[in-house]
Amino acid sequence: MTVRTRVAPSPTGDPHVGTAYIALFNLCFARAHGGQFLLRIEDTDQVRSTPESEQAILDSLRWLGLDWDEGPDVGGEHGPYRQSERMEIYGEYARKLVEEGKAFICYRTSEELDALREARRAAGNSMALKPSDLLLPAEEVAQREAAGAPYVIRMMVPEDDGRCEIDDMLRGTIELDWNLVDAQVLLKSDGMPTYHLANVVDDHLMGITHVLRGEEWINSAPKHKLLYEYFGWDMPKLCHLPLLRNPDKSKLSKRKNPTSILYYQRMGFLPEALLNYLGRMGWSMPDEREKFSLPEMLEQFDIQRVSLGGPIFDVEKLRWLNGLWMREDLDTDQLAQRLVDWAFNSDNLRKVLPHAQKRMETLSDFAPLAAFLVSGTLPITEDSFAAIKGEREDVVRGLQFALWRMEAMASWNRDAIWNELKALADAEGVKVKDFLAPVFIAIAGTSASFSVVDSMELLGPDMSRARLRHAIEVLGGVSKKAAKRLEKAYQELPPAAAG
Question: Do domains 89-187 and 375-491 have the same CATH topology?
Fold first, then answer.
């Protein structure tokens, strides 16, 4: 048997360090067994998936030094490798399950589903809806079908109180209650598959033998095991890797830690160091050394060396490790070249100079004008915002609203950024100049800079969002109570501008 593993990210946002972590361990496991590693794009969320996000995933994984044997950009015998290009396949398998009585057509409305869940909750039962909760009388089904009512396809699941045993490569046998497993939607009303159907069908058709994924998928394993049984297929061996965590032990999230690979690239971390650090997340070399390269990790890789304790993603520790790589593995000439490639290449300079040139009288004026573009976290304090009009709470509100709009943007260019920020200012009933004043300081560290929207385009989405988050924290942050109040107010604003 040839070992085949995969990573299957969704192109719905910035490429996540968690994706790189899972990709690294899948690559290492495949290579350790002389196997193959695949990249599959799970783009069934057609509203949020974008070609730009897909390309960012490909570019960031390659920047880290992770290469795949089959994928959307390199091809292979088991393509296509984008789920959006495999729609007919999923529909056929879903209908096959319906014909065999292993799935059913469900016409329940969202209001009915809410009422059913509330009834189960009131009765002290789990919120998992079973086929017996959802199936309608034949006459009602016929009426809704004749009326052309929308429907989904759901899988049949056990309704007893038994247990499902899942074999895990790291955890042994895991027992999960069937009564917590709902009649999962397999095919949505728009004909798109859910993750559960597409994942099982694709893994089988692509010959995946081992699935290494995050432990958040453990509770979904019974559904996947049942689908494999329904189809009569052998289930790949499962390995649920521990989740990356913030220093406070909470699940890694962008609210507490930068999570985008592009952020670390923009900050000037070396790809070798970031990959090294991800390799240390729950795994260790036999000699326990902290600094090692990908070839060294591949040479020593053993999945059983993974620790189940939640690995802490600590940016300060990453900085320390990155410093080791810079001092120990780069001579002066190599470091000079890395600096040029990172920020001082001709393409970057040509983007910056049209903005800086307007304010320059001597060449020495350039460095102070452009310093914020090649900086990481800016040394701003609460005093940096002293000249801003309004109360601190109003400044934080504006920055938080700006951050939420920036996080929702699908494409990143100056016009789109301007449209979003101007729309916010109009909705808040303030002059654009006044609304942008604190944003200027958050982005550039000063209001005496060139256009803030041009600056944000040059910095890119990851660094721009990180600086807005930092400014909010500098001003005292947002408490849980205040966050709920702000979220309610934000939801009442007009929709985001197009772009």
Answer: no
* pLDDT score at 123: 85
Residue range 340-354: mean pLDDT, rounded: 93
CB neighbour list of residue 319: distance below 8 Å, 6 or more residues apart: none
Domain boundaries, given as residue ranges, for the chain: 89-187, 375-491
**What pLDDT digit, counting tens, does each position of 62-103 carry?**
999 999 999 999 999 999 999 999 999 999 999 999 999 999
pTM over 0.85: yes
**Residue 317 annotated as part of some ligand binding site:** no
Report how far residue 120's alpha carbon sits from residue 77's, in angstroms, rounded to the nearest whole number. Answer: 47
Q: Please write down the HEC assignment for all residues of 6-39.
A: EECCCCCCCCEHHHHHHHHHHHHHHHHCCCEEEE
Q: Which two tokens stand for residue 310?
A: 């939640």
Whether the pLDDT of residue 255 is over 80: the answer is no
Phi-psi region of 341 (alpha: psi -120 to 50; beta: other; left: phi over 0): alpha
Angle, vertex CA 465, rays to CA 358 and CA 431, nearest 5? 60
Percent of the chain with pLDDT over 70: 99
Indicate which residue of 188, 254, 291, 422 is catalytic: 254
Give φ, ψ of 362 to 5 degrees: -135, 160
Residue type, 411: S
Residue pLDDT, tens place only, 184-195: 999 999 999 999
Model pLDDT for residues 281-339, shown as the tens digit of each residue = 999 999 999 999 999 999 999 999 999 988 999 999 999 999 999 999 999 999 999 99
266 vs 260: CA distance, rounded Å:
10
254 catalytic per annotation: yes
Burial class (CB in 10 A: 0-12, 13-18, 19+), 462: buried
Q: Kindly report the backbone phi and psi dihedral angles of residue 491, in degrees, each rounded to the nearest multiple of 5, phi listed first.
A: -65, -25
Architecture of domain 375-491: Orthogonal Bundle (1.10)
Architecture of domain 89-187: Alpha-Beta Complex (3.90)
User: How sure is the predictor about 499, in pLDDT bands with cuts at 50, 70 and 90?
Assistant: very low
